[in-house]
Amino acid sequence: MKSVLMGLAALSVLAACGGGNRDVATRASFMAPSSTLYATGPVQRACLAQDRRAASKARCGCVQAVADRALSAGEQRRGVQAFKDPHKLQVWRQSDRASDNAFWRTWKAFGQDAARQCRAT
Q1: What is residue 84's predicted lDDT score, i.e. its pLDDT?
Q2: Which 3 state secondary structure label does DSSP give 38?
Q3: How many other C-beta atoms lie within 10 A of the C-beta of residue 8?
Q4: 8-state DSSP, 39
Q5: CA distance 54 to 48
Q6: pLDDT (tens digit, 9 = 90+) per residue, 1-47?
Q7: Paired residues of 37 in beta bridges
Q8: Entry pTM
Q9: CA-CA distance, 48 to 44, in Å (whole number)?
Q10: CA gap 111, 81 in Å, rounded
Q11: Which letter, b or e, does each residue of 16-29 get, where b requires 16 or more Cβ atoms within 10 Å of its Cβ?
Q12: Among 10, 28, 46, 79, which one has the highest count of C-beta atoms within 10 angstroms of its own C-beta?
C-alpha cells in the first residue's frame, strides 16, 4: 500500500505537467548557469501539452532533464502514455508481466527523483 501511495504521489507531481504527444525529438539536457535543470524531449512536450497551471516551461524542462538521466528513450516514450492515461501506471504495476513491473519501479523512482529535483521550478 505504501508503494502505491508513493507512486501515486510521484505521479501527481508529473501529472501536473499534463499529457502529450508521442513523437520523439533529439533531447539535450544541460546545467544552466543558475544550476537549473532543463531539457527538451518527449516528456517535456507531454508535460506542456495540456497547458495546466503548474506546467511551466521551467518545470517541464526540469522533469525532462531528470528523465534523460533516469530513463531510456523507450522508457520515456512509454511514460508519455502515462501522461495521456494515468490509469496505465496502475495496470502496469498490477501486471503479471515482469517487464511491466520493472517499468513501474523505474517510473516510480524517476517520479520521486523529479519531484525532489524540480520542486522549486
Answers
A1: 85
A2: strand
A3: 16
A4: -
A5: 9
A6: 454 434 444 544 454 554 433 333 434 444 444 467 899 999 999 99
A7: 31
A8: 0.70
A9: 6
A10: 14
A11: bbbbbeeeeeebeb
A12: 46
